[in-house]
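Lecture notes, part 5. Sequence design as translation. It can be helpful to think of inverse folding as translation between two languages: the language of shapes and the language of residues. The source text, in structure tokens, appears below.
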């Protein structure tokens, strides 16, 4: 019921946001890292792929989300950087993809991504993005809804028809994972020849 009222229910705010000090169920823009999120979306709108965006963030030594959380005092993140200080700047492609796929940056709350099969089961399979519950205009967006939608269509249209093996995959961008909704890729297994 609280989610349906547009109240943010997470324990920590998404990267680029912070919880409103006067209302912990409301998100406000974190001016320290919102420009990073804006840059990620701007680069995607220019047609850059996730790998190029990730490399830009690494080369410009921008703290990745976990490192930023540790720098502002959040607990539980520091263990990732104890052995190697460079890990603070090692963005992953999945980290960039999650930001670009998250409707929270367009000012919407998204929930019910994973639902328990029943009350006794601990299994929580992922739902397809089109089946997620979205509550629009719950907080100020870092990007507009139109920019967000454009990035989604650009990401969907960027598909490989041929892999490194030269195999022409006629199902590229069409077959999706039933759990997470991302496009599946064809891969060839190199096995030893046996009798």
């Amino acid at each position: 019921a609280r989610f349906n009222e547009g109240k943010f229910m997470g324990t920590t705010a998404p990267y680029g946001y912070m919880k409103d000090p006067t209302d912990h169920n409301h998100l406000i823009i974190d001016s320290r890292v919102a420009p990073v999120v804006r840059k990620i979306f701007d680069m995607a709108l220019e047609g850059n792929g996730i790998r190029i965006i990730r490399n830009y963030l690494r080369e410009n030594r921008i703290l990745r989300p976990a490192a930023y959380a540790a720098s502002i005092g959040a607990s539980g993140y520091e263990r990732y950087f104890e052995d190697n200080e460079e890990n603070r700047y090692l963005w992953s492609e999945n980290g960039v993809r999650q930001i670009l796929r998250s409707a929270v940056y367009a000012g919407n709350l998204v929930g019910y991504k994973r639902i328990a099969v029943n009350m006794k089961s601990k299994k929580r399979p992922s739902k397809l993005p089109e089946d997620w519950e979205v509550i629009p205009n719950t907080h100020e967006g870092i990007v507009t809804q139109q920019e967000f939608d454009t990035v989604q269509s650009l990401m969907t249209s960027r598909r490989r028809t041929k892999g490194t093996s030269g195999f022409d995959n006629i199902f590229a961008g069409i077959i999706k994972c039933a759990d997470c909704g991302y496009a599946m890729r064809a891969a060839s297994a190199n096995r030893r020849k046996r009798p």
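The translated text above is only one of many valid answers, since several sequences can fold into similar shapes. The first strand starts at residue 17 and ends at 20.
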